[in-house]
Each structure stands twice: as structure tokens, then as C-alpha cells.
Amino acid sequence: MSMFLDTAKIQVKAGKGGDGMVAFRREKYVPNGGPWGGDGGRGGDVIFVVDEGLRTLMDFRYNRHFKAQSGEKGMTKGMHGRGAEDLIVRVPQGTTVRDAETGKVITDLIEHGQRFIVAHGGRGGRGNIRFATPKNPAPEISENGEPGQERELLLELKVLADVGLVGFPSVGKSTLLSVITSAKPKIGAYHFTTIVPNLGMVRTQSGESFAVADLPGLIEGASQGVGLGTQFLRHIERTRVILHVIDMSASEGRDPYEDYLAINKELESYNLRLMERPQIIVANKMDMPDSAKNLKEFKQKLAANYDEFEELPQIFPISSLTKQGLATLLDATAELLDKTSEFLLYEESDMEDEAYYGFDEEAPAFEISRDDDATWVLSGDKLEKLFTMTNFDRDESIMKFSRQLRGMGVDEALRARGAKDGDLVRIGKFEFEFVD
């Protein structure tokens, strides 16, 4: 089994805030002892941190659930509970994080040490010391901690490379990578020898350096899933220059120019924007018989499909085995990289709106529906959060919750929908009677 994994689906859950405490002082002349319950601590965030030492998402194959710790409960003497430590999850450079439900990109993590909070911890509930008023100097009211954010995420690893090698299987991409870098990819005389991306660093004679990725071979129909399909095409998206390697000896019995058109068609079918990246055509295996003749025909066919004033792609004849023409190819690649800026990987429509962890003022505070058993069901983010943070062990907290519902207009809305005295109302799994 390959130890390379470039996609994963995981679940993250931030820590719940600690519950507030109901406590009283025991001092002379302090009414009813006086409130002395502290607030709960903040729940831990789930934070992704980029680690340049990681090269794969393999760690997420068996560990798919990440849960931060909850905050400590409030304590007596007005002391706050301890906030929970954040959960740090290390990811490789080039990891794109998407929301599994919406498909929107949450963040693109590309720099070593870059941090991003993917799930925010809940705030601690308030202790009864926070609810003291002149009318109620000794309240028996506290809040439960706020639930932590919970979400399902899709992780995609797109390797960070300046240059990507593309082409049909067995055209010599792995051999080329092995002679221009210190990388040692698997090389064999059969198709799909390379089944995972291989990375290597190139240093030219003039001192320029850049990263090269050898990507598994494409074949016609790859964008529809043929062969290895689009499994590794995502890794080309981060590259700035594409080296299109072609077997100019036609040793597989295919026409080199038809190969060139077929691979470009697959790149275009996968993502039209890949065609914005400048290409250098690498005419490989020039040490083989018929290569020179095939290269001449290739140039003629290429020129015939370009207008008179269009600039033809650069073509560099090389031999990976004899190392013929490599220095010139690498210098030209470095020069093209200097002139090519980074490509915007995602459009604004792909990105998730800036996260807002409050309530949308325009969204309804609650919704009313009716279950099959004639029970009225209340739902809505604001209402459900209010319910979760209510301490139902205290009568005063329950009375406060009922006043909050009335203030939100729940009673009037139920009455308008036809609710009658004694009807059952449900919030989550909690049921109570409607009193008109």
C-alpha cells in the first residue's frame, strides 16, 4: 500500500466552555451570603499548523476525529475556571481545507508555521456573581458553557512545486527527475511505475534553484477517470511552469504530436486555468533512432496550428540517459520561472465568507414546525444555543429562560400558529407544556 495520501475527510470539534457556578459567601452582614460563583473557562480551539516536515495526509487515514478539551467549571470565591488548551493539528504544506457540507474553501495553508483556527471553542458560562442586581442581590442563576464549534472538513494536499513534469507514462519523467535532482523515484520499463508524486530540488549552473514535481503519468481520458484519472492532477495546480515531456522516439508506437494534444486536452478538461501556465516542451529520448526525424515533423505540425504572430512554445531536445541538453533546459526553466508570477488558485466564489461567530441579525431567531405526534418543535441557532446554555437544575435559570423565550416572541408565534393551553412543545429532546 502506498504511504502517500493526499485527501482526507475528518471531523473536528472545539471544546465546550466550562459551566458557571452558583455559590454564596458566608459572611456577616452580606445579604443571603452574597453571590460568589465564578465563570467557566473557555473551551479549546482546534488549530491547524503547517509543518514542513510532513509530506502526506497519511496521519489522517486512521485518526479522523479531533476534539479539543472543554473549559473548567467556575469555582467559588468568584474564581474563573481554567481555559482549556487549544488542540494543535499539524498538516503538510499545501493543504487546502474545505467545509465538507458546502464545499467552500476555508483556508489554504502553504507557509511553514502558518496557523488557522478551524473550530472555535465555546465561551465559559457566567457564574451567579454576574447576575446580581439591586432587586436580586443573591441570584441562584448561572449559565452552562457555550458549545464548541463542530464541523466536518475535507483536506486536500496539493504539493508545493514550482515546476510540474507531465506526459504519458514511460516518456522518461522519473528518469529526468532523477538526473536533475537528488530524488530517487522508482523507474521501470512499464506504465504507471510512478504512482505518487515525487519531489526534487534543482540547482542550475548559474545558481538558480527551484522545486520540481514528477507527477504520475496521464493517459487519454484521465479527466474522466481513466488510468490514475484525476487523482494527482490537483498537484499541477500549484505549479507555475509545466514541463511537457514527450517521447520523441515514438517507442510506444504513438505519434508524439498526438500525445502532446491529448495531454493538453486532459489538463484543460480537468481545469481550464491550467492552460494559463507557460509550458516548455521537452523532447526526450533524442538518443534513440528516428527521434530527430520525429522532432522535425513535430515542429512542423506545431507551427501549422499556430497563427503567424503567435509565439510558439519553447522546445528543448534532451536525453535523460546521456544528459544531453539538460543544462540548457534547466536554465530556460529558471528564466521562465523568474518571469512567471504566482497563479491565483481559488476564485472568491470558492472561498468561504469570513467567519462570523455571532448571530446573523437578519436571520430569524427561531422557527416553528409541527411533528407527526402533534408536538410543536422549536428550532434555530440562537434559540438552541440559549437552551444549551441554560442551567435547568436551577428554578431561577428556568424562569429566566422562559422570559427570554417570551421576549423573543415565541409565545405569540405559537399562539398565532394555533397552539393551545397544554400542547407539548419540544426543543431538542426537552419537552414542556405550552401555557396560554
TrEMBL record:
<dbReference type="InterPro" id="IPR015349">
    <property type="entry name" value="OCT_dom"/>
</dbReference>
<dbReference type="InterPro" id="IPR006074">
    <property type="entry name" value="GTP1-OBG_CS"/>
</dbReference>
<dbReference type="Pfam" id="PF09269">
    <property type="entry name" value="DUF1967"/>
</dbReference>
<dbReference type="GO" id="GO:0003924">
    <property type="term" value="F:GTPase activity"/>
</dbReference>
<dbReference type="InterPro" id="IPR036726">
    <property type="entry name" value="GTP1_OBG_dom_sf"/>
</dbReference>
<dbReference type="InterPro" id="IPR036346">
    <property type="entry name" value="GTP-bd_prot_GTP1/OBG_C_sf"/>
</dbReference>
<dbReference type="InterPro" id="IPR027417">
    <property type="entry name" value="P-loop_NTPase"/>
</dbReference>
<keyword id="KW-0479">Metal-binding</keyword>
<feature type="domain" description="OCT">
    <location>
        <begin position="358"/>
        <end position="436"/>
    </location>
</feature>
<dbReference type="GO" id="GO:0005737">
    <property type="term" value="C:cytoplasm"/>
</dbReference>
<keyword id="KW-0963">Cytoplasm</keyword>
<dbReference type="InterPro" id="IPR005225">
    <property type="entry name" value="Small_GTP-bd"/>
</dbReference>
<dbReference type="InterPro" id="IPR014100">
    <property type="entry name" value="GTP-bd_Obg/CgtA"/>
</dbReference>
<comment type="similarity">
    <text>Belongs to the TRAFAC class OBG-HflX-like GTPase superfamily. OBG GTPase family.</text>
</comment>
<feature type="domain" description="OBG-type G">
    <location>
        <begin position="161"/>
        <end position="338"/>
    </location>
</feature>
<dbReference type="InterPro" id="IPR031167">
    <property type="entry name" value="G_OBG"/>
</dbReference>
<dbReference type="Pfam" id="PF01018">
    <property type="entry name" value="GTP1_OBG"/>
</dbReference>
<feature type="binding site">
    <location>
        <begin position="192"/>
        <end position="196"/>
    </location>
    <ligand>
        <name>GTP</name>
    </ligand>
</feature>
<dbReference type="Pfam" id="PF01926">
    <property type="entry name" value="MMR_HSR1"/>
</dbReference>
<keyword id="KW-0342">GTP-binding</keyword>
<protein>
    <recommendedName>
        <fullName>GTPase Obg</fullName>
        <ecNumber>3.6.5.-</ecNumber>
    </recommendedName>
</protein>
<feature type="region of interest" description="Disordered">
    <location>
        <begin position="127"/>
        <end position="146"/>
    </location>
</feature>
<dbReference type="InterPro" id="IPR045086">
    <property type="entry name" value="OBG_GTPase"/>
</dbReference>
<dbReference type="InterPro" id="IPR006073">
    <property type="entry name" value="GTP-bd"/>
</dbReference>
<dbReference type="GO" id="GO:0005525">
    <property type="term" value="F:GTP binding"/>
</dbReference>
<feature type="binding site">
    <location>
        <begin position="284"/>
        <end position="287"/>
    </location>
    <ligand>
        <name>GTP</name>
    </ligand>
</feature>
<feature type="binding site">
    <location>
        <begin position="319"/>
        <end position="321"/>
    </location>
    <ligand>
        <name>GTP</name>
    </ligand>
</feature>
<comment type="subunit">
    <text>Monomer.</text>
</comment>
<feature type="domain" description="Obg">
    <location>
        <begin position="2"/>
        <end position="160"/>
    </location>
</feature>
<keyword id="KW-0460">Magnesium</keyword>
<dbReference type="GO" id="GO:0000287">
    <property type="term" value="F:magnesium ion binding"/>
</dbReference>
<comment type="function">
    <text>An essential GTPase which binds GTP, GDP and possibly (p)ppGpp with moderate affinity, with high nucleotide exchange rates and a fairly low GTP hydrolysis rate. Plays a role in control of the cell cycle, stress response, ribosome biogenesis and in those bacteria that undergo differentiation, in morphogenesis control.</text>
</comment>
<feature type="binding site">
    <location>
        <begin position="214"/>
        <end position="217"/>
    </location>
    <ligand>
        <name>GTP</name>
    </ligand>
</feature>
<feature type="binding site">
    <location>
        <position position="194"/>
    </location>
    <ligand>
        <name>Mg(2+)</name>
    </ligand>
</feature>
<feature type="binding site">
    <location>
        <begin position="167"/>
        <end position="174"/>
    </location>
    <ligand>
        <name>GTP</name>
    </ligand>
</feature>
<keyword id="KW-0378">Hydrolase</keyword>
<keyword id="KW-0547">Nucleotide-binding</keyword>
<dbReference type="GO" id="GO:0042254">
    <property type="term" value="P:ribosome biogenesis"/>
</dbReference>
<feature type="binding site">
    <location>
        <position position="174"/>
    </location>
    <ligand>
        <name>Mg(2+)</name>
    </ligand>
</feature>
<dbReference type="InterPro" id="IPR006169">
    <property type="entry name" value="GTP1_OBG_dom"/>
</dbReference>
